[in-house]
């Protein structure tokens, strides 16, 4: 977690980031298959050859938040983060709508 502070460095509130513990997921129970967005080398070579032939300019980018913006297919639930468990509802879990780092389902989203 992280403390959010005001201009005079007084703690206004605590902020926590909800993370998935993907290493505890079991294949066949929590997910069916894994996936990684990796282009085959043949596709890359073909693309570069076509771009060179047509004299196109090629740019490279890295999308750092691609795992955070995908909509999940299916239901995924996570428990409350340690240190932020609700006193009224200690057994409640969160249903995720969007992918989180650490989920086995994140690349498919």
Automatic annotation (TrEMBL):
Pfam families: RVT_2 (PF07727)
Alphabetical list of InterPro entries matching this protein: RVT_2
Reverse transcriptase Ty1/copia-type domain mapped to chain residues: 2-108
Listed name of the protein: Copia protein
UniProt source species: Tanacetum cinerariifolium (Dalmatian daisy)
């Amino acid at each position: 977690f992280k403390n959010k502070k005001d201009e005079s460095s007084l703690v206004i509130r605590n902020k926590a980031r909800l993370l998935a513990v993907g290493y505890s997921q079991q294949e066949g129970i929590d997910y069916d298959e894994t996936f990684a967005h990796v282009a085959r080398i043949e596709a890359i070579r073909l693309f570069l050859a076509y771009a060179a032939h047509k004299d196109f300019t090629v740019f490279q980018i890295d999308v750092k938040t691609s795992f955070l913006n995908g909509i999940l297919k299916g239901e995924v639930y996570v428990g409350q983060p340690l240190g932020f468990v609700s006193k009224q509802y200690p057994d409640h879990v969160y249903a995720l709508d969007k992918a989180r780092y650490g989920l086995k389902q994140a690349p498919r989203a």
